[in-house]
Amino acid sequence: MNLSRPAGERRNRTSLKIGIVDLIERQPSRTLYGRVVNANFASIMPQAVGVWAEQLGHEVEYITYTGFEDLERELPRDVDLVFVNAFTQAAYLAYSISNLYRRRGVVTVLGGPHARAYPDDAAEFFDYVIGLADQHLITALLSDFPPNPSIGLYLTAARQPMTLPGVRERWKYIEKTLAKTRIIHVVQMLGSLGCPYTCNFCIDSEIDYQTMSYDQLREDLAFLQKQPRSLMVAWMDPNFGVRFDDYMDVIESVVPPGKLQFACETSLSLLSEANLKRMKQNHFKMVFPGVESWFDYNNKAKQKKTDTGLEKVRRVADHCNVIMEYVPYLQTNLIFGWDSDTGAEPFELTKRFLDLAPGVYPKYSLLTAFGASAPLSRQYMAQDRLLDLPFQFLDGYSGINVKTKNYTHAELFGHMTDLMKYTVSAGLIWRRFKANGSAMARYGNLLRARSKERNAGAGQGMVDHYREVQQRLENDPEFLAFGSGETTRPPAYYVQKIRQALGPLYDQLPAKVLDYFQFGEAAPNTRISLSPRVRPPLTPVEAPGDRIA
Ligand code: SF4
């Protein structure tokens, strides 16, 4: 496989060839849901890196992996440097891709959520690991990038970028990915970065809130509405609409009603009825607020601190019913396993919530700590409450890597099985169908509830999934030994799943990762980041010019 440039060509280069690989998926997918949805989740930063590299005169080959491609065949060829963007669930796929390139002399760079959550682990397998990126950092890196074969270098900008390339500049990358899907075409945009709220489990709670340029947003929206396809703009802000009126003014100044549709993730506290009216006028069709817990995080749900349990359920359900009068598709996000959760109550309250607001589609996650990325994760680390769950399963539903205070993991999965059964029961599916006002919400939710897919947002397939994991946690000796801390060697079941997911790329995994799968303890560095058992994190290079200019 000719992944690197011939050495002679490299010596004489004036411009580089840069490969960019955005791992939207971690494994092959064959489902209708994946076919419709995955290609709509291409990340913005890899596209921004591509634009910045081209502005420097370099050639860029950009690909996305949505689970439907033959990845080995599509990986960029003849490159000098390759950037990989990955969530933690795709870390092993990213590591194998990096190893494949490094064996051929190509320097590799990791960016994205995994790089931010587990920088010291990723540095074992990449030449460079990027925390926060901006144009200055990427320019400096591309000016000089010696390989770091023994341990990668961690680079981060001091803060999030103030500007990013607009949609027009990113369009050729966006279009290439959207061509992979039909029915819905979503373009991701960022109106702001960071968040003024302080939810301690969230990576964005420690990033200062900033708006992106309103002029740039206007230009982007004007450009998008001229495209022949009908497009939905998904605002990927951590918390869209903190400066609500500003964003509605921007939209209304350039987008005639109905020319574009919109979706956003935002707090319930921002969804007042006055704001909802304006969202309806501007064709917001989907909204994804986080409820998180029935006993905590009340400020973002605009609830009094004392309104917990059933009182919170009633108030949030009322609020959700109001939201759906204006925005047809509503998904609420809930997390289970908090220290404030005990017994069956959080799950029974969720059923009550679904009874009171049947039009909502709930998305459930299990409490997960991603490295040192958020204050709560660091607290769990300090309390020795983390388990060595392989990265592949840090997706909020395959397993749980936090030692929960009031449940065994088997008990949690038992509750999830019961709750999921209720969520996709025939009676509730029918009530949801009737409560949803638009065809998109009705049939979208029907498809979702009936889906055999196993992912956090799916339906009936998840009942079997939760039950299967519960049974393994109760009966499989390897799961029992792993869960009790008797061994750090992952159960063979996990390794087999990773082998299936990676296919032929499994053989490209670095030896340290394979050793970890086989022996556990033998390679603790391949697992938990920043735990007391591994060396301290690499010192961030705050001024990238210090090291690589
Ligand atoms: S409101 Fe959302 S984005 Fe903001 S800190 Fe809380 S979870 Fe994070």
Describe the structure.
- The structure is a single chain.
- The protein has helices at residues 7-11, 32-37, 44-55, 71-74, 91-102, 113-117, 119-122, 135-143, 167-178, 214-224, 244-254, 273-281, 310-326, 345-356, 375-382, 409-423, 426-435, 439-450, 460-475, 477-483, 492-502, 511-519, 545-548, and strands at 17-23, 59-65, 81-86, 107-111, 128-130, 153-155, 186-189, 192-193, 210-211, 232-235, 261-264, 284-287, 290-292, 329-336, 361-366.
- The longest helix is centred in the middle third of the chain and has 17 residues, at 310-326.
- The chain is built from 23 helices and 15 strands.
- Helix 13 (310-326) links the parallel strand 13 (290-292) and strand 14 (329-336).
- The protein is globular and about 65 Å long.
- Strands 7, 10, 11, 12, 13, 14 and 15 form a seven-stranded parallel sheet that branches. Strands 2-1-3-4-5-6 form a six-stranded parallel sheet, sandwiched between helices.
- The chain has a domain at 7-161: Rossmann fold, CATH 3.40.50.
- Helices cover 40% and strands 12% of the residues.
- Helix 16 (409-423) packs antiparallel against helix 19 (460-475).
- With 549 residues, it is α/β, with parallel strands linked by helices.
Give the SSE layout.
Elements: H1 7-11, E1 17-23, H2 32-37, H3 44-55, E2 59-65, H4 71-74, E3 81-86, H5 91-102, E4 107-111, H6 113-117, H7 119-122, E5 128-130, H8 135-143, E6 153-155, H9 167-178, E7 186-189, E8 192-193, E9 210-211, H10 214-224, E10 232-235, H11 244-254, E11 261-264, H12 273-281, E12 284-287, E13 290-292, H13 310-326, E14 329-336, H14 345-356, E15 361-366, H15 375-382, H16 409-423, H17 426-435, H18 439-450, H19 460-475, H20 477-483, H21 492-502, H22 511-519, H23 545-548
Parallel strand pairs: 1-2, 1-3, 3-4, 4-5, 5-6, 7-10, 10-11, 11-12, 12-14, 13-14, 14-15
Antiparallel strand pairs: 8-9
Helix pairs in contact: 3-9, 10-11, 13-14, 14-16, 16-19, 17-18, 19-20
The structure holds iron/sulfur cluster.
Residues 195, 197, 199, 202, 204-205, 238-239, 267, 290, 300 line the site of iron/sulfur cluster.
